Amino acid sequence: PPSAAANLRPGAEQKVVFITARVHPGETPSSFVCQGIIDFLVSQHPIAKVLRDHLVFKIAPMLNPDGVYLGNYRCSLMGFDLNRHWANPSPWAHPTLHGVKQLIIEMYNNPKINLEFYIDIHAHSTMMNGFMYGNIFEDEERFQRQAVFPKLLCQNAEDFSYSSTSFNRDAVKAGTGRRFLGGLLNDTSYCYTLEVSFYSYILGGLTSAVPYTEEAYMKLGRNVARTFLDYYRLNSLVERPLTPTPKTR
């Protein structure tokens, strides 16, 4: 249809969701979550079509390819924890971060582009479930707005825990993507770290843990993507399959 991908026409205003993953090479679950997001967004699912028409998704699925190739757990080829170098990445020592940061700054400076979300996907070795880290702001109203997306995700994903989601400004984390971009971008942008457990999740009301599988990680990714539909209130645009109308008594 002619309306499709109107947001990609030259000069069109764009709402951008920027997603990165695997800055820590050992956190393999982050790749499966990211794969779930990508597979869903490029699918023929009616929700995916609506999302593609209204949003632009920029995804860097592997920020540390050399570390992954070497089998490192946390560092790059040169021994850097890349997630501590966002403030001043060197094109020589941290080329992937440097490239992604340049792209984000270009978009931020483009008046036709609204960079609305930045989500960096990680895996957590001690906590259960999926959860998010957000930033702390002095502005109470901005702080409340930041909680909306994780609350909606909690409704869509049974393995996502809002109670484990936290907002912090720990000095140790100052060089992370979430913290650095949270300080750089303006107050209409939301920056999160999405964490998912290495091993299991506990569903509400149950006490026994359910081990994560590759499929369960990808399902969390699909649910992250679907949550943008609720966030932007695009539900009414999704084509519903025709169902027979129930007979009234």
Automatic annotation (TrEMBL):
Provide one Gene Ontology biological process annotation: proteolysis
Q: What is this protein called?
A: CBPC6 carboxypeptidase
What Gene3D superfamilies does the record point to? Zn peptidases
| UniProt xrefs under Pfam families | Peptidase_M14 (PF00246)
Give the InterPro entries listed for this entry. Cytosolic_carboxypeptidase, Peptidase_M14
| GO function terms (MF aspect) | metallocarboxypeptidase activity; zinc ion binding
What are the residue boundaries of the Peptidase M14 domain, all occurrences included? 1-232
Q: Which residues form the active site?
A: 195 (proton donor/acceptor)
Q: Which UniProt keywords apply?
A: Carboxypeptidase, Hydrolase, Protease
Q: Which cofactor does it need?
A: Zn(2+)
Classification via PROSITE patterns: PEPTIDASE_M14
Q: Which family does it belong to?
A: Belongs to the peptidase M14 family.
